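Deviations from the work plan: none for this task. Representative record:
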Amino acid sequence: MTRADKTEWALIIAFPVLIAAALLLPSWMVNYIQVSLGTGLVALGVMIQMRAGLVSFGQGLYFCVGGYAAGMAGKFLGITDFFVLLVLGVVAALVISIALGFLLRRYREIFFAMLSLAVSMILYGLLSSSEGLGSTDGFNLPVPTYLFFAPEGDAARMTLYALTAALTVICAIVLNRVLRSPLGMINEAIRENELRVEYLGSSAHYAVHVTYVIAACVSSIGGVLWALSLGHVDPEMTNWTTSGAFVFVVILAGTGNIIAPLVGTFLLEILRVYAVELSPNTWQMILGTVMLLTIIFLPKGLWSLMGRKPKAQGPSPDGAVQPGE
Amino acid sequence: MTVILETRALKRTFGAVVAAHNINIQIHAGEVMGVIGSNGAGKTTFVNMVTGYLPPSSGEILYHGDSVVGLPTRDITRKGICRSFQIPQLFAELTVIDNMLIALTIANGARPALMRRAVTPELEERAMALLDRFGIAHHAQREVGVLAQGVRKLVDIAMATVAEPQLLFLDEPTSGVSADEKMDFMGTLIAALKSTQTAVLFIEHDMEIVETFSPRVVAFYEGTILADGPTAEVLANDKVREFVIGGEFHRKSETEGGVH
Amino acid sequence: MLTAVAIAVDGLGFAAWLFLSSVGLTLIYGVMRILNIAHGGFYALGAYASAWAIGLYMQTGQPVALAFLIIPVMAVLAGTVAGLLIERGVLRFMYGRDEVLMVLVTYALFLILEDVTKLIWGTDSYVAWQPAYALGTIDIMGIPYTGYKFMIIGVAVVCGGALYWGLSHTRVGKLLLVVIEDREVAGSLGINVTRFFTVTFLVGATLGALGGALTAPEISVVPGIGAEIIVMAFAVIVIGGMGSIPGAVIGALIVGLARATSVHLYPPAELFSIYLVMAAVLAVKPYGLFALAEGRKI
């Protein structure tokens, strides 16, 4: 095992901080943290693909697959165990992403963006017209149990929250290592010049496929956690506009550090709550404007304002939104 | 000397255009050879076919006696045939050292590991040693995109050598290098490669460089081989003088006119 | 047999609507290399503008015939105003940037357009059924079809024909084709590429708005229709080959027939069928049926 770098220490410290927050902050705030940890994991899935120059406009697919797999296991099989639901969600995403990866790994740039969108909309179409799954309304999830432990009320909320925080931290650490691994480096190289990667002796298709599957699994974990904390799933999870929001977060936060999209997701969630209340019809306009300004003035995202070069981040401290050639 | 690469009746067409035909060539272990010929004579097409970038329309490519036709580029690289590019193919937004680290990482394993840290002090040391060999160690921390063409060329060639190939194709290594620096540039290059036992085939338009650095020359004309043999003989060949070198002089004056 | 006819007629109807809604997208991509997600916004703007204007007009009690004129007028108005603002205000500063970056930019513009539409027309639904109703129905083998459907097919044919004629018989059109085919050649011929961009973008935006404006009388215009159309338009142009106008015709026919088949035989698979066809086409032709040529790298 390699030693933890600064980012990983920050993540490890974040766990007790998150737990403390749950005890100190008002419960509505804790709810937002919990929900945004779930969606934050999907943003991480978008981010690691973006490091390879791939913009997924359909990451909601795996967010939804995770949520629905857990939900359907609860609804039809009566499974309530958190860990079983989690594993089922990840396995579903694993199987689907391995299969779809054979198609998508051939594509780059706008084709990848739009085809990932298209496959997520297939699921959207299927779920929206499945009466058994509540069509566009979706359905509710069971209250999860934990092995032989079935907490209620505050204890139930706290258990789910703590597990959500722990899983997010673990996923982020794992992904941070992936970014610094040979695969992570090859992804940077694919973003810059795929022809050279092939001429150096590596299969870009393989690296893209593996990255796609990893992103899918992380996103599905996010989906399970999000669905369990809201107790509900619906097809909007895989609508392309949902995926667009994940892309938005990563553009805004930047791809320089694994923590950035997590923090970005949370801030956006809080912002959204207020903005939607104050002026529901201009929320998207604000998002769009902020996104334009970020692309024009801060192409490497808000994280670049932190002003430090995270050298431990693998070969490139930038890795910003300049995908492909 | 053992033959490491042999092509038999290699042919490539693009629609009705015959880019290369009847190419029969034998390359021996460790030898240095120059390839001359005007633009469009089929030189790069030949390299593209041997390295798996372009499938030949017909013909055979034998590497150590085994056919490599149909193999993807990456597999051919892994077998020990590497190349550099006329236009350097680099990771422009990354630093020189990162470019080398990526090349070394890939050379270390075909299937990338997921959790192991890629950059180790040992790997960095190897990357620096390679850069040092090509005389560009002082550029290590600079972003590739901002470097001068000559340095980019060297990075490109250095990256092609990390896997310690048995056969290395250099596609116009001195193009983009200024006329008075070409000799020194090529000297550095050939010296750096001498220590590796690599067979080197370089495409070159400057006859002085060809005469200085390669004992053997292959002349391409209109998609096929016009002459192949010891440098002095090939350069004295009437047909070569008429069709290839004559064309080169013509081309040279054009290039100096700033058309390149 | 009856089903087959129904599928054919409905398929043609869908195809006409899809062609109108997506040809602007493929035109803009072909010439400018911008995959314009904001195209969905133009569609929605056109739909709202025309539904709103028809509603106002019908309140005055005038004859419905003039309402048909409102549709193209509002489409041109919406397409030109929004197109001009976006092209001159934002996009022209970003020409030549990475294609993926441009997708993100136009996605941001799409989000802005969505809210602009909401700010102008609110979130209530608009219905402007009068023109669709006015054309009555036509019976084919006992199945009644709205005359309006055939009018849309007619408009699609006219628009497609006009585009074809414009591209193959006018100087500007021929130059545009050169730009689509080979940008480098276009540059070396001394064509001022950027000047064509404004024109192309306005034409593309207007076509998108026209798609929406023509659909308005058939549907209830509600927020979100822009997000829906962009996904389908994308399927159409990917099947045909992005940037290819003949491709958009073929793509629209394929998607239209697939959707009609599904609607008649197995409705739940409606959306699914579109992408199934797309996946099938891409499995054989990875960049669509009429993919644009890519330049060689080495």
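The two ends of chain B are 39 Å apart (CA to CA).
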